[in-house]
Every structure is written in structure tokens, then in C-alpha cells.
Design goal:
The protein is an alpha+beta fold. Helix content is 47%, strand content 13%. Among the domains are: 3-64, 2-Layer Sandwich (Wheat Germ Agglutinin (Isolectin 2), domain 1); 120-188, no CATH class. The chain contains six helices and eight strands.
Length: 195
């Protein structure tokens, strides 16, 4: 079986030079136009390298210029926060759709934790919780900064667990919530003060 840069070439159209093929400047194979990326600056409208060789060339550059690539990537992400968020959400959704059993277990554990860490709420308290979530969504929309509803005392804390009740909820930025993780307020804030 032939391969090009570790990729099987059995599915590539490698006819001899003809009107329908183009020679890759890197691997030397004559390939059909669909194996090349578009390039409006070139007369034939196609890149000089086939898609596989282009990927290999980019990977080699990234490896040779690791710190420069890391800085470029960091800067691009900082300047394209919305694109990064959308791409992350798409990746998460794709992963969940391919791994339904893991998502189901994770959601079941979360629901169980909420049930276990809750007690019967009044209609007013349930409404308060809904209003807190609506407020977080509204603030995110108005400011353009993602906000989360956070449990002040986490539902699955290391030393203690909080409840899923209105007075244990707060609205904080998503970044702050990720930084906080599964930690609650400092224990010292609960110690009685001695007069």
C-alpha cells in the first residue's frame, strides 16, 4: 500500500498528467483539483501543495516555531473571544452527541447532587431561583461578558456541601466561576469572632 507522509494514497486520484490533474510541488504526485486548497492569487486558482502536504508543512512550521506559534495562537484567541466560545460550544456539543452515555451519567450525577442538596422549596423560592438565572443571562447579553450562576457553597464541596437554594446562589463572571472551581468561601469567615 502506498502512502504519502504516513497517509494512504489509495483513495487519491493519481492519473498521469492530464487536463484534470495538477502536480504537487512537494510530493510530486499528480492529483485531481479537489485535493488542493483554493488560492485566488494563482492562475489556476489552486495552491501549489496538495492538502496533505500543506498540513504536513504547517505542522513542521508549528513544531519548528513552537513559542512563536503559541504566542500567535494566544493573541488570536484574545482578539476573537466570540469565535473561540462558539467553536468550544460546537466541540462540546459534538463530543456530547458522540458520547451520550458519559453525558447522561454526568447529568444524572448533577441532578442527584441537586436533589440531595435541596429541600422542599416554596413557589416563591423557586421563582427566585429562576429569576437569578434569568438575570445572569440578561447581564451576559447586555455586557457581552459571559456570566454564570454560582453556588456560594458548592454542591459537592470537599469539606462541606451547599444547598441549591436562592440564598446560596450568586451571579459572577464565567472566568471568575472557572477560577473559583469547586471551592467555597474561606472557612475563617464562619468562625465566631471573640470579643
Amino acid at each position: 500500500m502506498n502512502s504519502m507522509n504516513g497517509v494512504p494514497t489509495s483513495n487519491l486520484k493519481t492519473n498521469a498528467m492530464s487536463e484534470e490533474t495538477k502536480k504537487c510541488c512537494r510530493c510530486g504526485l499528480y492529483l485531481a483539483p479537489e485535493h488542493y486548497s483554493k488560492c485566488s492569487a494563482r492562475g489556476d486558482g489552486l495552491q501549489n501543495y496538495c492538502k496533505i502536504c500543506s498540513k504536513v508543512k504547517v505542522a513542521e512550521w508549528q513544531k519548528a516555531n513552537a513559542s512563536k506559534y503559541k504566542n500567535l495562537l494566544r493573541d488570536w484567541r484574545a482578539n476573537n473571544i466570540e469565535k473561540v466560545r462558539i467553536a468550544s460550544n460546537l466541540r462540546s456539543a459534538r463530543w456530547r452527541s458522540r458520547n451520550l452515555e458519559y453525558s447522561a451519567v454526568k447529568n444524572a450525577v448533577r441532578r442527584l447532587r441537586e436533589r440531595r442538596n435541596s429541600f422542599p422549596l416554596t413557589a416563591k423560592q423557586k421563582l427566585e431561583i429562576r429569576e437569578i438565572y434569568k438575570a445572569a443571562k440578561w447581564i451576559s447579553k447586555v455586557t457581552g461578558i459571559p456570566y454564570h450562576v454560582d453556588h456560594i457553597h458548592p454542591l459537592a464541596g470537599e469539606n462541606f456541601s451547599g444547598l441549591h437554594v436562592p440564598w446560596n446562589l450568586q451571579i459572577i463572571t464565567a472566568e471568575e466561576n472557572r477560577r473559583k472551581g469547586n471551592s467555597g468561601p474561606a472557612v475563617a469567615s464562619y468562625l465566631p469572632t471573640v470579643l
